[in-house]
């Protein structure tokens, strides 16, 4: 008999989503969908607010990656008011963003995702989590908690608030970095780089090998990719041009200010989250597993697929090894985890580069601004993908119109596809068990939504 | 002794949950003394049974229920009621749960206006959005928890400081009453106040405040409000600095915006701030707008849509 299964809520992700699986009379999967269950309406309610206040409001879109919204928003407001931050102001923003990336990836890998691999996808839900890991491997857990906490406290100690930051301000950064701060943070980031390299080795030796078959099958779909690169084609998290790559590896680069020419957003009645697609490909929108149209992915795997190279040596070596094994572009969804750990190494190396530059301690961190009418698009790579804030202001410098495309949103279409692919390959003759349903969620978790 | 803890997030951003994780190694102590029975952020307990075939939303019984986020849709309401039914003590964690928080800024608009903008942006395909099952319907506004369920302990903050989350959880395990700060941000701020000055108008925060060398301590910097920048410190509950006390935004040389909500639970940050400014001879018309003064506490019907003009 036809029936419907609800995985509700999807757990170990950020936010509110569920999975709806429809079975036909034979117990085969007819359709499967991801429902995004909530809508807060930031695009509407920041209207009328003074633009310089908005970076402190939109940070609340996400408590895991508030730095990303905070900084994309600051970049948009800079453009509205026509102001350019001095070099040290820009570098401090980039440093904070890079350290936030490093912290975020540890959080996702160890606290949210690892249990599926370390404890196992079929383990009882009561132990298949970070608490289970802490009990099974207390030494590792202690090290992880320590390293992540230290990283978070760098942000808190230097920038005041780590969650819902305030130190990015229109025109630059709120305070300069002293030589003492610089040395202390540099030492901490060097220690974190060692831990990042350890984590990647640990994952390659102990975490991924038993799942190499699953990696090649679970949630695998064929799509394009999008991410930010600098002028040399190297991956860049803070600034650069956006590269939109088709599944065959061909690509176009564009300026974030022109995003409306390249991206559209499709609407489905089963999701409050919209589904961005590549309007510029002129093929429309379809989530068909065999022949998707307009579908591209973002976040770690996408970024390392679109980048020609990594700008730092250890991350570059890891990228070369990854490409040797999985090709470019790599399509296997679970490889997002692997790509995430390569980016972790990059983030640590890049933070060290920024801290080794004496200019970061310049006391010139903020250019004074005047509220005025304008338009600006601010874009950064959030851990979960390309993040776009687009504002217009009136002559009083208050917001008249806002459009936001949030990192995870780009992946809503692809998540629907991965879930359907996983459900169709796992569920037959109406037989369902917890391990199967968790594997279907693993296809979502890889995207770290 | 171990206590059972259930945790839920409603109309929120997950910052409160991350703040719990940000306790550092104390987190491992918490995991020793608390047994989590439901926490979607970290654990796979499902509402409708582990196979998704249940008919009713179910959360296991617990001693302590932590709820972050306000109540904005029917699902939030159902979850909040189930938490209340199953938990002996309910803690409203974070300013969204206590006062609506930033998402309650939506209360200045009608749902149609919000949906129209969200699904009518320049990049969105022009087809009307009609939500279907299982998407929950929006309620009329974003509500604080105590507009629907009884709350036993309020822990505001955006996010609440991990020091306070830790001390509240340990107090509950020990069976003692948690102590939370009740003063204002100004009472805990180290900057220099020189008293009533010549200030007549406020400036926008589009330039740096004045301070000496980059490493000059906050104790030497003049109060940001006295420097002419709007600072919500006088009308905001203290606590954001945790055990170290110094307000967190001030430590970045940035003025307070009120994230811990009003000093008294039922205070009105907008009215109190405008009164404070006016009584000091500052022209409140120098502020670009006033709604933002309620950006953290717009629930409890403090923020409402502009009344539509009646058609003649």
TrEMBL record, chain A:
Asked whether the UniProt record includes Secreted among its keywords, one would answer no
One of the entry's Gene Ontology molecular-function terms is: ferredoxin hydrogenase activity
Name of the protein in question: F420-non-reducing hydrogenase large subunit
Amino acids binding Ni(2+): 65
Membrane-crossing ranges are none
Gene3D superfamilies linked to this entry: Cytochrome-c3 Hydrogenase, chain B
* Swiss-Prot/TrEMBL keywords: Iron, Magnesium, Metal-binding, Nickel, Oxidoreductase
- Binding-site residues, Fe cation: 65
| Protein source organism | Desulfacinum infernum DSM 9756
Belongs to which family? Belongs to the [NiFe]/[NiFeSe] hydrogenase large subunit family.
Q: Which PANTHER family match?
A: COENZYME F420 HYDROGENASE, SUBUNIT ALPHA, F420-NON-REDUCING HYDROGENASE VHU SUBUNIT A
- Cofactor(s) listed: Ni(2+); Fe cation
Spell out the InterPro entries in the cross-references: Ni-dep_hyd_lsu, Ni-dep_hyd_lsu_Ni_BS, NiFe-Hase_large
Question: Which residues are listed for Mg(2+) binding in this entry?
Answer: 43, 62, 404
Automatic annotation (TrEMBL), chain B:
Gene Ontology MF term list: iron-sulfur cluster binding; oxidoreductase activity
UniProt keyword terms in alphabetical order: Oxidoreductase, Periplasm
Gene3D superfamilies with a match to the protein in the record = NADH:ubiquinone oxidoreductase-like, 20kDa subunit
Output the InterPro entries linked to this UniProt entry.
Answer: Hydrogenase_assoc-protein, NADH_UbQ_OxRdtase-like_20kDa, NiFe_Hase_small_N_sf
Q: What are the GO cellular component annotations? A: periplasmic space
Q: Where in the cell is it found?
A: Periplasm
According to the lineage, what is the superkingdom? Bacteria
Task: Indicate where this protein is primarily found.
Answer: periplasm
Looking at the record, the residues that make up the NADH:ubiquinone oxidoreductase-like 20kDa subunit domain are: 13-172
Pfam families linked to this entry: Oxidored_q6
Please give the name of this protein. F420-non-reducing hydrogenase small subunit
């Amino acid at each position: 008999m036809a029936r419907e299964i609800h995985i509700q809520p999807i757990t170990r992700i950020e936010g509110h989503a569920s999975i709806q699986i429809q079975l036909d009379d034979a117990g085969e999967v007819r359709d499967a969908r991801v429902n995004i269950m909530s809508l807060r309406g930031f695009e509407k309610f920041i209207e009328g607010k003074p633009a310089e206040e908005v970076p402190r409001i939109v940070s609340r879109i996400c408590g895991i990656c508030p730095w990303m919204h905070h900084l994309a928003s600051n970049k948009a407001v800079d453009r509205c008011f026509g102001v350019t931050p001095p070099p040290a102001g820009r570098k401090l923003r980039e440093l904070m963003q890079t350290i936030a990336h490093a912290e975020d990836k540890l959080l996702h890998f160890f606290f949210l995702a690892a249990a599926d691999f370390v404890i196992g996808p079929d383990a009882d839900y009561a132990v298949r989590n970070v608490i289970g890991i802490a009990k099974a491997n207390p030494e590792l857990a202690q090290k992880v908690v320590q390293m992540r906490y230290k990283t978070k406290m760098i942000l808190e100690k230097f920038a005041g608030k780590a969650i819902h930051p305030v130190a990015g301000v229109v025109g630059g950064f709120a305070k300069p970095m002293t030589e003492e701060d610089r040395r202390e943070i540099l030492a901490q980031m060097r220690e974190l780089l060692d831990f990042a390299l350890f984590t990647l080795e640990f994952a390659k030796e102990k975490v991924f090998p038993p799942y190499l078959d699953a990696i090649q099958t679970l949630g695998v779909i064929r799509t394009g990719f999008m991410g930010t690169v600098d002028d040399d084609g190297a991956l860049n998290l803070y600034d650069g041009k956006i590269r939109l790559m088709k599944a065959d590896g061909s690509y176009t680069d564009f300026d974030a200010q022109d995003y409306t020419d390249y991206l559209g957003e499709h609407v489905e009645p089963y999701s409050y989250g919209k589904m961005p697609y590549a309007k510029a490909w002129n093929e429309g929108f379809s989530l068909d597993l065999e022949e998707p149209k307009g579908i591209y992915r973002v976040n770690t795997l996408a970024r390392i697929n679109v980048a020609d190279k990594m700008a730092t040596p250890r991350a570059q070596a890891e990228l070369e090894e990854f490409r040797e094994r999985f090709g470019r572009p790599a399509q296997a969804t679970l490889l997002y985890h692997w790509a995430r750990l390569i980016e972790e190494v990059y983030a640590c190396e890049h933070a060290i580069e920024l801290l080794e530059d004496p200019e970061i301690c310049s006391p010139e961190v903020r250019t004074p601004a005047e509220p005025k009418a304008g338009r600006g698009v601010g874009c950064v790579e959030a851990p979960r993908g390309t993040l776009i804030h687009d504002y217009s202001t009136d002559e009083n410098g208050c917001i008249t119109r806002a459009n936001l495309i949030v990192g995870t949103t780009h992946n809503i279409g692809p998540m629907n596809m991965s879930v359907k692919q996983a459900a169709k390959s796992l569920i037959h003759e109406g037989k369902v068990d917890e391990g199967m349903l968790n594997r279907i969620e693993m296809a979502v978790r890889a995207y770290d939504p | 002794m171990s206590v059972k803890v259930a945790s839920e997030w409603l109309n929120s951003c997950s910052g409160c949950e991350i703040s719990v994780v940000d306790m550092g190694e104390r987190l491992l102590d918490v995991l020793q003394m608390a047994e989590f029975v439901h926490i979607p952020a970290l654990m796979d307990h499902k509402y409708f049974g582990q196979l998704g075939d249940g008919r009713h939303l179910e959360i296991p019984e617990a001693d302590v229920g932590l709820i972050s986020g306000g109540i904005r849709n029917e699902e939030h309401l159902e979850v909040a009621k189930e938490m209340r039914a199953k938990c002996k003590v309910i803690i409203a964690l974070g300013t969204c749960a206590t006062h609506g928080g930033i998402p309650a800024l939506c209360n200045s608009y009608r749902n149609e206006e919000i949906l129209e903008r969200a699904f009518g942006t320049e990049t969105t395909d022009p087809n009307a959005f009609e939500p279907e099952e299982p998407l929950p319907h929006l309620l009329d506004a974003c509500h604080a928890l105590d507009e629907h369920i009884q709350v036993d302990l309020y822990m505001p903050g955006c996010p609440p400081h991990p020091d306070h989350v830790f001390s509240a959880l340990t107090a509950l395990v020990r069976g003692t009453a948690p102590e939370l700060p009740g003063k204002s941000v100004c009472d805990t701020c180290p900057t220099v106040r020189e008293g009533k000055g010549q200030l007549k108008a406020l400036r926008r925060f589009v330039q740096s405040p004045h301070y000496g060398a980059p490493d000059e301590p906050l104790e030497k910097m003049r109060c940001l409000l006295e420097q002419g920048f709007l600072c919500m410190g006088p009308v905001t509950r203290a606590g954001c600095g945790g055990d170290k006390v110094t307000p967190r935004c001030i430590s970045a040389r940035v003025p307070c915006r009120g994230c811990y909500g009003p000093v008294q639970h039922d205070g009105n940050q907008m009215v109190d701030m405008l009164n404070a400014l006016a009584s000091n001879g500052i022209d409140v018309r120098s502020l670009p707008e006033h709604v933002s003064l309620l950006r953290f506490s717009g629930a409890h019907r403090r923020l409402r849509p502009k009344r539509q003009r009646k058609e003649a």
